[in-house]
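Our platform keeps sequence and structure together, in a single record for each protein. Such a record has a labelled line for the sequence and another for the backbone structure tokens. The tokens are whole numbers drawn from a learned vocabulary of local backbone shapes. The remainder of this section carries one protein's record, kept here as part of the documentation:
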Amino acid sequence: MKCIVVGGGVIGTSIAWHLAKQGVGEVVLLERDRLGSGTTWHSAGNITWKPSRDHDAPILYAMDTLDRLKAEVGQETGWLKTGRMFIARSAETRRNFEAFDRTARERGIAARWIEPADAGAVHPLLDPSAVEAVWLNSLSGRLNPADLTAAYAGAARRAGATIRENIEVYGLSVTGGRVAGIETSEGLIVADAVVMAAGLWSRRLLEPLGVALAQWACEHFYVIADVSPRLARETPSFVAPDDLLYGREEVGRFLVGCFDENAKTLDPAHLPKPFSFTLLPPDWDKVAPYFERASRLFPALATAPIRHFVNGPESFTPDGAPLIGRVGAIDGLFVATAMNSTGVTWSAMTGALIADLVTGTKPRFDARPYDPVRFGDRGRDLDWLKAQISAVVSLGYRNQNR
């Protein structure tokens, strides 16, 4: 079997490694620019365990995978286990975190409540009077997405996969209802199976085949502020779902992002070319109310200069879950796309699940929540799709389902 993976981000490289490790046959990854371009390079790189059906086993597998990659290729990923502060500013959110805490204790995962008055000892910039409760989850940290991509790619090559950069994919060749190959800037490359892991561009590449993936892009952003005092590397990250905020230390500075309400959608077809290691213009009006909320939690932000505004498009789905699996209408076609801004988190699980599906092995993870055709024909209704996705960005984060 010859399997082609389209897209050299953190998802595509993980898939290539898992396929090669599983002995699929010939595995070829095609990347139109350089590995890690597109959306991977500007990811915040957070990985956090949460006690939900969709997070438990995949997150534990992700953390185990980091150890395996280091052992196999000696490639550092920048993984730093910091823990994460779950900040509640309402009684309802506190009750949600209490459920998290019960599950953590049942699972033997270290976690603890921090009295607001003691929170400053954990995060020196947090105003204790601004919070109702703080739950510290130890099984959380961050890494460098570019290094993780390089580690996946290195492991994939060692396992026998071929990785080719600077080859643009124009579309799929299908004969008799099954994949025949890929049309590229270097001509037709024959294949028995294709995994579409092209992120923002996956939908456009499959539309000519009558496949309308239920994904669309939104602007998604964070800022990096030059705070004083500077933060230690080991400072726990934070999430504050009441305010739709998250953040972490970044080289002594403070990275603060949001999953905003009424997120601004955009058509990937209108992005400038090439759009590889590229960002969108800053949207100060959009970020301002979230930065004000963050300043109430962390008063030092009110006077801290903003050194970087990172605004990069991300693909979302109407229910906040990625699209991973077979596209039944075309034999040999698989997709792994629309990660809802959690590509680093889902990359290990996605690679394993796709490898199992391609080889016909019993899946290690439940594929049903990620079925790429679960929305039926609704993905063809662009008005519905854009409205749903504009709303889901904040709804999923407020409910902490991601």
